[in-house]
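Thread amino acids onto this structure.
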């Protein structure tokens, strides 16, 4: 499979995952950490299944030494950044949350520039600025006209900033671990540690949700995890054969897919002019970043 095909597959599958997350957020109330735990439990199990199939055996090489510490960073960082994004979905809707989360891409690319020594060009700076403009425009858009969950601009900004920092660090560590361990060993242990991290977060913060864990909720959470695991495969492969900045920037192309389908499926069409302006800014910015 070529790098380009892997990125396109990841864009399509991650867009489906975001849309399904939004559907769950609309239909499932009061099960925030529970959904995350169920989702990452499925991801962890599927990671081991995928790795076992690829190896042709359930016996997989164990990580050593400091790798366990790095896996723990990813194990907590990825679920936390996902939970922040899921919370944003309830405040701003699927299309807006996807546009806003593009700032995670800029933060990750910045780490690539600072830590990996990748060049900072005028094109890169212009593209990043346009992405941020799209994010700022999205902050002022209500989720829709009938399904509103209020949050202040300060709350949204806090979620965006904290989510981008955690996500970018986790992606940097994930890239390092894939390079060290290989894609399949990382899928087995890296995704497994994410399941452990999500479970511990639920134990600490989400125990009150246990009484709301009905069969439909469990089914939705596990289903979301399965879809996300499918999106994770081409993403991990792209990271294994490409560099961090290019891969994370290319994956942001899912924005266009989510915006289009959210308008159709969830009728997120209010403030259409501002939505279009934010979308155009992000698309142009992303195109410049990928040149």
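Threaded sequence (291 positions):
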């Amino acid at each position: 499979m070529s790098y380009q095909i892997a990125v396109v597959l990841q864009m399509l599958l991650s867009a489906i995952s975001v849309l399904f997350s939004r559907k769950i957020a609309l239909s499932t109330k009061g099960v925030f950490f529970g959904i995350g735990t169920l989702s990452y439990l499925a991801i962890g199990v599927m990671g081991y299944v995928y790795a076992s199939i690829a190896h042709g055996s359930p016996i997989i090489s164990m990580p050593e030494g400091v790798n366990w510490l790095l896996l723990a960073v990813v194990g907590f960082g990825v679920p936390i950044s996902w939970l922040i994004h899921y919370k944003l979905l309830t405040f701003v809707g699927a299309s807006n949350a996807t546009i806003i989360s593009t700032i995670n891409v800029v933060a990750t690319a910045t780490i690539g520039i600072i830590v990996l020594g990748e060049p900072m060009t005028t094109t890169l700076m212009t593209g990043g600025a346009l992405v941020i403009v799209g994010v700022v425009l999205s902050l002022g858009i209500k989720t829709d006209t009938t399904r509103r969950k209020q949050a202040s601009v300060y709350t949204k900004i806090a979620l965006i900033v904290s989510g981008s920092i955690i996500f970018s660090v986790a992606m940097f560590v994930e890239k390092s671990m894939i390079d060290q361990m290989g894609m399949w060993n990382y899928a087995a242990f890296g995704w497994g540690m994410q399941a452990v991290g999500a479970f511990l977060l639920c134990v600490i913060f989400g125990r009150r949700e246990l009484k709301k864990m009905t069969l439909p909720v469990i089914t939705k959470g596990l289903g979301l995890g399965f879809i996300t695991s499918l999106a994770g495969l081409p993403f991990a492969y792209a990271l294994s054969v490409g560099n961090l900045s290019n891969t994370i920037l290319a994956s942001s192309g899912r924005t266009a897919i989510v915006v289009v389908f959210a308008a159709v499926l969830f009728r997120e069409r209010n403030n259409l002019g501002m939505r279009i302006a934010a979308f155009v800014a992000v698309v142009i910015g992303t195109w410049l970043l990928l040149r």
